[in-house]
Amino acid sequence: MLGFLATVELIGLPAFAIFFHGVGARTIAGVALADVGICAVGTFVAAMAAASRTRELVLPLLFLPSRSRS
Fold it and tell me: What angle do CA 50, 52, 58 make, to 5 degrees?
């Protein structure tokens, strides 16, 4: 998954630099940290789904918004 994200960003970051302003080191570092975070969450959810007996219900349950009573 990290490879796919990096490939998409190799296309997306130059396009961003062309249409807006140049891409600096801070932007690249932020994008790299976001990639690691997305991959970590995806791996965690995939591990939960693989270990569950009801794999089809894990993702919908995780993405349902919870109602907070305030």
Answer: 90
Asked if 66 and 28 touch (Cβ cutoff 8 Å), the reply is: no
Amino acid 66: pLDDT: 63
What distance in Å separates the CA atoms of residue 58 and residue 12, rounded to the nearest whole number? 31
d(CA 13, CA 28): 8
CA 55 to chain centre: 20
Cα–Cα dist 42/27, whole Å = 22
Measure the CA–CA gap between 56 and 49, rounded to whole angstroms.
8
Would the pTM of this model clear 0.90, i.e. be above it?
A: no
